[in-house]
Model the fold of this input.
Amino acid sequence: MIMDFEHITYETDGRIATVTLNRPERLNAICGGMPREIREAVELANDDHDIHVIVLTGAGRAFCAGYDLVESAERPTSSPSGPAVDSHGRPWDPLVDFEMMHRNTQDFMALWRSYKPTIAKVRGYAVAGGSDIALSCDLVVMSEDARIGYPPARVWGCPTTAMWVYRLGAERAKRMLFTGDLITGKEAAEIGLVLEAVPAEELDDRVQALAERMQGVPRNQLMMHKLMINQAIENMGLQQTQMFATLFDGAARHSPEGVWFKKRSEEVGFKQAVQERDSGDPIAPEASRTPYKF
Done:
């Protein structure tokens, strides 16, 4: 069975459902409606008693390049400095921002909450919001040359699913988010961020073999084991951590440095602003000199 959504595709073959992010011309960047469609596809698979395993992948040469931010980042605002404003120039309401981003986070986390195992198959890039999607899956298999990371941790973002700390532990999560570095699939597997990395030409076969191995297990066994392991993570405060992370994501986009990055995107274009952000040079040196007074 094949079903088309607007931004993804959904296909079943025996006991395996495959969800494909389907914006290859934009490296499957996240647009409005895509998070909801991911959740709907997961729910569709969960309601199908014939399905035992869900595979999530991306069309074309990337898994997901994060949120599609070029238009909103480059759109002029009425107050590029001074009081915080949203991308439309309106006064920023942190709770409106939270409601929007938390909805996306919960849509991504449908992969985590799914009663059936979810496997992310990653080639190319799983960066920024794309890493949020991949790390919401139970298992992640990457090609060795694929890249994963959260560059907006340098300025203008905080990973709302907060899965880095639960997969890596505190120190390695800090190493990734203090730098915003991208690492290869091989490096990600070595530090335990993902299950394994294989040569690019072997990725499809490896994920297929893993899904086929699991599909023979009764659904109730898969569900029991998933619920048991997930509750251990949730008892560590996952929901509260995601609440803080989502609030901080909005704050990061409206801090003095975040406002500087937005203004820089308007001036030189989002691509150039990102290159400057990731260059290693001090970010927003003028904004960062503003002292805090208590």
